[in-house]
Each structure stands twice: as structure tokens, then as C-alpha cells.
Amino acid sequence: MTTNLTSLPVNADQYGLVDIQAEWTGTPVGTLFIETSNDVGSTDTYGNTTGVTNWTTYTGSATAAGGAAGNFAWHIWATGFKWCRLSYTFSSSTGSLTARVNQKG
After folding, report:
1. d(CA 40, CA 98)
2. What pTM was computed for the model?
């Protein structure tokens, strides 16, 4: 976590609930947030997503990584967007980030 980071897009089109959990180690200082998109996009059989270029920060999703190891989970009910991803804006220090997503619906 020594630079800005963006996860791969997750297709949420067929799901009513998206849950993203992030865990970080070290002492990173920065902001984690969810971005969403309604671009058409597509994912091939190898998991590569193309055609998703317009991203909007999901209102209220920003949370700080404030200089210590930690974790956070976003529970997004009644998704209306097609795609989502986790992003991190770097401020200072270092750390490692692991994130997982679960979808239901």
C-alpha cells in the first residue's frame, strides 16, 4: 500500500447484496472506498473485464486506514449498479491489503 490501488471490477448485475471485506497490515495512511459503474462492459472466460471506464465513488463508502493494521467491511444492500470495485488512495507509510467479495441475491 505504497501507491494508489484499484481492484479488478466485480460484476454485481445479478445480485441484490454485495459485501466487501478489506484487511490491511503495516501502518498505511490513506483512504479506502467503493466505486460503482453502470457501463455495459463484459468479462471473458479468463476473467478479464473490458469496457468499464466510468466510475463513481459510492456515497458514504470512504474509510480511513489511519496508520495501523485494521479491517473494514462494506455491506451494500439492494445494489442498483452493474459493476463495483475497491480503491485505495495512498497518503503515506506502507502496508499490505487483502480484500474479498461475497455476493448474494
Report:
1. 27
2. 0.92
Nearest CA to 19 among 65, 76, 72, 97?
A: 76
Contacts for 11 with CB less than 8 Å, ≥ 6 apart:
41, 43, 49, 82, 83
Is residue 14's pLDDT more than 90?
no
Burial class (CB in 10 A: 0-12, 13-18, 19+), 24: buried
Contacts of 69 (CB under 8 A, 6+ apart): 24, 25, 26, 27, 95
Structural domain boundaries enclosing 32: 5-104
**Structural domains counted in the chain:** 1
- Average pLDDT value over all residues in the chain: 95
